[in-house]
Amino acid sequence: MTEPARDTIVAVATAPGAGGVGIVRLSGAGASAIARTLAGRALRPRHAHHVRFRDARGEVLDDGIALYFQGPASYTGEDVVELQAHGSPAVLQELLLRCCELGARRARPGEFSERAFLEGRLDLAQAEAVADLIAAADARAARAARRALDGEFSRRVDAIADELLAIRVHVEAAIDFADEPLDTLGGAGLGKRFDALALALAALLRAAERGRRLRDGLHAVIVGPPNAGKSSLLNALAGSDRAIVTDIAGTTRDLLQETIRIDGVELTLVDTAGLRDGGDAIEREGMRRARAELSRADLAIAVIDARDPEAGHAAVADAIAGVASVLWLHNKSDLLASGPAFDPGTDEVLHVSARTGAGLDALHRRLRGLAQGEGEDAGEGAFTARARHVDALLRAQAHLVEARGQLDHEILDLAAESLRLGHDELGAITGRVRPDDLLGHIFSSFCIGK
Ligand SMILES: Nc1nc2c(ncn2[C@@H]2O[C@H](COP(=O)(O)OP(=O)(O)OP(=O)(O)O)[C@@H](O)[C@H]2O)c(=O)[nH]1
Ligand SMILES: [K+]
Ligand SMILES: [Mg+2]
Fold first, then answer.
1. Residue 274 CA to ligand 3 centre (angstroms)
2. Which ligand has the minimum distance to the alpha carbon of residue 302?
3. Mean confidence (pLDDT) of the chain
4. Annotated binding-site residue? 98
5. Which CATH number does the domain housing residue 191 bear?
6. Cα separation, 185 vs 170, whole angstroms
7. Where does (6S)-5-formyl-5,6,7,8-tetrahydrofolate bind (predicted)?
8. Is 411 within the bounds of a domain?
């Protein structure tokens, strides 16, 4: 299938609003001709030209710098021109319209990056990293997106995909030469290679999960029995009266989400209905929502009354069972006469008072650390990843497990198929395998001009 010839697209590449400099970007076969007309002279590739941009009647719209990147050595792989003018929205609009008069079409969101992908300048995970870099909430997330853009994530995916392919080849060969024992065809080490591959995939999955958290921020869900002070704690952390606080058990019913920043690190907090037996229909629905929210939590913040931690622990233990990490807050420490001696096992405990603010500094430090992936291996070299990538890796892992079982039972054709499916999942991460609606879905979430 041949791709249809692409037209020339144009967009304002700088952020909306006034600024010192604004950039209009063109990409496509007509880019340099349009720029020549606008600037009144031909542009040499990779040269900064000081030019006057003129309208159809020859009147000067603005003066500025024009840069021409001849394809394929450009961001999109096509001919690209960047027109730098004064950063006035009015001037930039006029320049944009003039480019359209001269044959360009306004770009869709993400269309420049989509072209870079289609021209092979970036793989799909790298193109996604471009959007993640632009949207990064803090310096750490930006650095991690930069590493993904440099291909650190893609290289690890490719390495696993290559090894998977090599194993596939052995299995396929064994199907074709059914008389030979699998060992001689695949080499005696096939089982070992399988194990090594599974380990590498598990490590990559952990790194991608960390990368997803770097991109999306930590998702923390506050749970506990009624009246433990969950909403009070949300308010204390958010620094506002976001949630209703009363001394009536069962005050909170709906989920209440708030994004907070601690020293520039972003995390999401969700306040939930108190967990207890009984309650009216509304409260029970609230508890159902609380449990559902916990299933997508990176962290459960279990808030219990410091005066009766055993009861609090019992009220939430089953709800938090599946959550990766749990932070216990013994709240209302101001009401406590002497230090408590309750130990919930391996989880951490902090003593706080949402009312007096005691212990909140330590809580801030701990939350910042958790949001930054503190205490996890390989904090350095971390790259951003997306839920899409994590899901694909999980599916690849499941196919690998299937394949291993099928191989052990010498059901080679099924094993070959499972390996193929696993390989396709990895290919979908970098875009070598492309489900139909994937590209539109990914690039439509970009900003215009990128
Ligand atoms: N003394 C003291 N009282 C607190 C503290 N935190 C919360 N309270 C009080 O405890 C009561 C319940 O607080 P909420 O924040 O509504 O508790 P909740 O866990 O959200 O309750 P539900 O939404 O009903 O599940 C209110 O009267 C708060 O003022 C604290 O640290 N010390
Ligand atoms: K309450
Ligand atoms: Mg509440």
1. 7
2. 1
3. 90
4. no
5. 1.20.120.430
6. 6
7. 25, 82, 121, 450
8. yes
